[in-house]
Fold each of these.
Amino acid sequence: MALILYRLLLPLYLGVALPGWVIKMGRRGGFGSGLLERFGWYRRAAEFEPCGAIHVHAVSVGEAMLALKLIDSWRRRDPGQSFVLAVATATGHQVALPREDERLRVVYQPVDLRICVRRYLDRFEPCRVVLVEGEMWPNLMVEAERRRIPVSLVNARMSPRSRRRYEKLASWVRPVFSRLDRVAVQEEEDAAIWQHLGVPEERVRCTGSLKFDPGDGPKPQPRPEFERMIERCRGGRPVVVAASTHAGEEPLIASAVAEAGGFPLVVPRHAERRASVKVMLEDAGFRVVLRSGFESPDGGGRVVLLVDSTGELRDWTAHADVVVIGKSFLAVGGQNPAEAIQAGKPLLFGPHMENFEPLAGRLVDMGAAWRVEDGGRLRKALVELLEGHRKPDPEIARKILQRHAGAVGRVIEWLEDELPHRWQD
């Protein structure tokens, strides 16, 4: 019944959401990038596709980067294995496409309509589908099971709100979730909810978080061109990076930074918001310098450097004296603090880090990060920190993050482990 309702309601939802989706894709540079792949139309001839590859599905930019991290490690272990990275957004596509080579194909994942899913599976014939984090696609999972293609979920997470919602709907979603071949969860306490939602106990394993595994991938590194931009703007003030900000947070954080005597460097979560962010910052009394088309500011006044690019946050973080995490003040959920921790930077965030618990709570409890309630308290905390009275301890933060070291390898081992398969006669 749940699947029937989903199949009836999904086309209606897509019809309502399509105009907004098209506008969003246009703003993010999606047109001309192959968006029709989402509906099963591809530019490349089918005979040149990598059939039998492992397919990794990611939605957002953050998930695409996690998927690349997983794929890179997997390829080092098995150089002959081919992969397809299927993304859902234009920004995710932009981040992933430069990494495409003879063993990695980057495509848009299909809209979860049966006709689109079938065209996708007919074309690529994947040997395995790996979903990253929390995206459930019922038609994909049903069709894959019909073809005996295992579907796994890695880095599985569930916010408290999602958990409450799924618990209420458990009897409806169990027929879908029970189709998962394996689930790799981030924390031991996460296993119970997936079992409650229908995944057998032997198919659930705690591996740690892909996001928080320092791994052997690239760490945040200073870039000379970034340093030159900062030096021309900051006027000798310490650099405070506002990382992955959401709507309305930019003037709030930048004002607190400036009033505390720091130089605000703002990196919005979505670069296509540059125009609205620029207007908000100017209305707050700032002279805005854009990372794109950079020009040195003349004269004095309050200056803010606005990074209106995608996929560079990691290395901007390396230039920070302090990092403030976005989506934690005026939105719910927070953003990933791992890059700031890996860069060894003092860390602050607002009251809303729900998507990164229990990590955020552990950081605060151990004095490795500060949680502040609003812009006024953020200013006071920054004054105390920038004047050197005390600060969060980056080394303790690194030790806390180290609990997840090796998570990528554990996920791969879990996926490669030969368990008795449920389709065997």
Note: The mean pLDDT is 90.
Amino acid sequence: MTEPRPGRSILREPAFLRLWLGTTASGLATWAMPFMLGLAVLDRRIGPVTLGVVLAARTVGFLAAVPLGGVLADRHSRRAVLFWSGLAAAAASPLLAVGVGRSVALTAAAAAVVGAGQGACRPAFQALTAEIVEPERRQQANAATTLAVRVSTLVAPALTALLAAALSVPALLLGTAALWLVAALVPPRGHHMPDTGTASQRITTDLVDGMREVQRHPWFLAGLAALTAVIATGYSATGVALPLVSRDRYGTEAVLAAATTAYTVGALVGAVLISRWRPRNQGWAALAGLSLYGFVPLSLLFPVHPAVVVGAYALAGLGIELFNVPWFTATQREVDPRLLARVSSLDFLFSYGLAPVGLAVIAPAINAYGTPAVLATCAVVCFAAPTVSALIPTTRTFSGNSSRRARAPAAGSAR
């Protein structure tokens, strides 16, 4: 690892720049794919039911591969896991392009493989960041990474729509293979020393080891519980309720478009802010940021001006990055480096992995109890979950003495 210059931008470090480019490429491919399939519905290549099947297959592949990718990234080189997961997604993308409009089975199978590639690379990216970036610069590195992800959510749909004027949907899907090749080939090698003693263990045994590591960090359990609650209720409920409110209360889809855009813009602002800000009580500050999502269901609950809804979404986007970046940084700092990838995989699995469950439950709940009751409940959960988590010992700073003992043996290697 080269010695960084004081004040030097993290993106000017060659190793991190390569990792950032790989992360950005995978983010663009990830966010562009659903939009491309949506264009296939508009072109009548596939129907809405097929779209649902294909996206569900991708989600299943993602959820199945996240824990497996975490274990493999701890057993082997994180760089190798990125290579093979990116290569798998790149190889499946042409099959996806061939299958769309011709074979639902082929399209769904290819989407599942792409989803598996996405899932396997997520914990490896997190762990590799800790390998190549010095501890004092990881918050800046994580902010730069999440900034790229948020820009991807804005750029990918717009760029896809622009390219769609000249290219067919299969050609666009084929183009994502190039992005996955970048994600596979560009990231640098790290310094991780795989634990060869676990090579003969079952995957489940390694995951249990990861869960034991999680239990040693009360702040992690508390933060993960709060994040899961907010995503499974607030994020999922508003995803269902916002289109309904935009149509029925305001009579236009413009509120839907403005609110979702405001969320991403708020997240961009949050990423820039947290790249420099170092709150003294970073855990409490992060949980306070997470609780800001509670204003979203509140804004949808009452007949307010559309600007209030848009502002609430911007505030939620700001808050989620004030949580995400310190959360990732603390995980990279506190967790045993030998177990970092599988702990990160459990993070993704329990937080974002439960979002589809929330979406599946919210719609029947709205039908049974009404939109106001569901939104009010979600607002209470979004405010209460981070508040309760803040009462757990060690959440104030996202750190603990036990984790420092775990870090000591590996201080000169993987981190």
Note: The chain has two domains: 10-134+162-192, 212-410.
Amino acid sequence: MIRARSRPAWAEIDAEALVANARLMEGVIGSAKLCAVVKADGYGHGAVIVSKILESNGIDRFAVAHVDEAIELREAGISSPILCLSEPSYSAIEAALEHRVTLTLYTKEGIDTLAREAKRLYEKGLISDPRAGYHLKIDTGMHRVGADPMEIPEIAERGREVGLTLRGFWTHMSVADDPPEDGRDDFTKAQIRLFESAKNGLFARGFTPRLHVANSATGVNYPHARYDMVRSGIALYGCSPSPKTKISGLRQVMSLKSRVTYLRTVGAGMRPSYGRRRPTRGETTILATVPLGYADGVPRALFDAGAEVLIRGKRRQLAGMVTMDQVVVDCGTDFDVAVGDEVVFLGTQGNESITPDEWAALLGTVNYEVVTRIGFRVPRILESEVDRVIDGRMSEVRR
């Protein structure tokens, strides 16, 4: 991630909101353990920043998609257990063991490779126990990854035979964000029943793994499916899992902000930016240039969709097509707008707010995609650090 040196553009992370969301979810899930899902760079919020905040506030379980994501956390000093949610390439298993990453497996080949690598590293003195723990994932109907239900006993027995420890058993719900009261939960109930049957079979064979099925939506909508642990991702970042599953009390964690870097006054009928798509309307229009573009996670489609930004507490339309590095904002005849003014793309300014849900509705997508799209050029900065990191450099901007 690029440091904030040459332009006033940043993603502002509200640590208090993040912790408040975690506490809210802990209250929702009751006795189940909260596992913070920080894959995809913490859903675009900065995995290291997010994980450090959560770990320092007592959240001690994390989940990622890839071994490399787990290693990044370890190298940043995160010491809590980390679960990798997909079976990795076999070449990554050595690094996973060395960095104390718990792997999800669902093939006999994965079982054999983990056992072989654990034994080898133990004999070399690089790990302290050859009986590596793993989590076994069952495919209950999403059909993305996971073992066939009929293969679960065989895979688990193979793990025991080669000296591994089955520490977790889990699956993933595909439509749990459809609330039960909508009458569309037959599939989710069928997934849970299939999981229960496979779980009972494992228990009958003497296995006692930690059980987890629920993501944020399942944790809210299906209390009986919380089991031992709930993997909460999107809710931690202040976004509800779907328009049908709203979680009251969540606080938006990330704000996407910039500052006006250039102003131009033009007459009527001018057509700013690529494609010359929209003419200015009044005899005089103030155009503000802002250094965030589609390379930073501000989609071009927002222009046609009618997206707005906030400047001086007011909503302002985009004056032209979003470009790779910049947007031009129509400020009408507001001559009070000045170079250096804060521009909010996502977040709150005054009495106005723009949320990932608003962008998602405009773009025909989900809030997950909105927040994870924020680009690598945008530094993630704690709200408490903005004055020092960003505003301290504004004196360099020509006025």
Note: The chain has two domains: 31-237, 254-396.
Amino acid sequence: MKNILVIGSTGQIGSELTMKLRTGIPGSLVVAGYIPGAEPKGVLLESGPAEVADVCNAKQLAAIVDKYDIDTIYNLAALLSAVAERLPLKAWDIQMNGLLNILEIAREKNVAVFTPSSIGSFGESTPKVGTPQDTIQRPSSMYGVTKVATELLSDYYHFKYGVDTRSVRFPGLISYTTLPGGGTTDYAVEIYYAAVKGEEFVCPIAAGTYMDMMYMPDALDAAVAIMQADPSKLVHRNSFNIASMSFDPEGVAAAIRKYIPDLKMRYEVDPVRQHIADSWPDSMDDSCARAEWGWAPKYGLDEMTRDMIENLKKKLL
């Protein structure tokens, strides 16, 4: 990777990944792609080039690739699970038609592509504990449907045309930097904000609902490492299970109370998010990622909680 376009650079993942790529890969040029209304600001704008990059505008994307001689695209454009259920046609347009535009450009211009998948690609018939790398995927949400299709289409372009497509299945991602935008696992970020602010947390996910989660630094490491991996060692491509921790609302609340004992939490379950959460794995088996490209997370629940609280206190108080 040398000349990189990050599409969705101002989102929860993109804002941090763009900066990691700019600071962590010597000699790289990283273009922050965004849509109008979501312009980059501050250090994200000041530290490198930025361009309007709408995945549904193929000519616009191709022009950016040519202008900057792009060799790698990180395609982070998506509507998250809860939002996609409200806007299913828009989700399909962004996540499928947009992906097709990117893959066609990649085929024509020899560009590598990372388009993340998710635990949302699984469904109720998937084994919930130790979910295998290769298993049945029958999701019941539009978000999940697009993620399965993303995996298949990305693999198709690799095997049919030789496009260098790679991806990981992200768990729920937790970060103190940028708030999430409508995902089923968002509660696991929001509870930290409530705790640090001294507010009661109203949890939209039922007690006992386990889901895979990951701290953002580990997720960013995975997104970079998979694209730097030796292709000759990749048996899989789209998409690798990656995991670091699994907990339910009571588990994360207990971890927070070690540092903020007076955290109060009650439940008002959102039936849409709960239905989605119930169809997702409790925990994923990431042994293929560990074997094929050396995946290894650095953060568990306690390490993440300590770091989240420390940084949110600096940010909010």
Note: The radius of gyration is 19 Å.
